[in-house]
Design brief:
This protein is 68% helix and 0% strand. It has 73 residues and is mainly alpha-helical.
């Protein structure tokens, strides 16, 4: 019984330490795009819109997919 409780305590302690390390890493190490990446993103967005691409909203997606299942024969 004592071994089980000790194992659970060690597991939760390791999980909390791992979670804390991940949170600190996310706050310290942030990624920012440089000008070259931003220019490429803008170029690709313009290319998509030029070819008729439009992003669908949730209502458009629900209208275009089968959400009611299949009819039995």
């Amino acid at each position: 019984m004592f071994g089980t409780i000790l194992s659970l305590a060690i597991f939760f302690g390791a999980a909390l330490i791992g979670w804390a390390v991940a949170e600190v890493k996310a706050k310290v190490c942030s990624y920012e795009k440089n000008e070259e990446e931003l220019a490429e993103d803008k170029r690709l967005a313009e290319l998509l819109h030029k070819n008729g691409y439009s992003e669908l909203g949730i209502k458009d997606v629900v209208r275009n997919i089968s959400t009611k299942g299949f009819k039995a024969v």
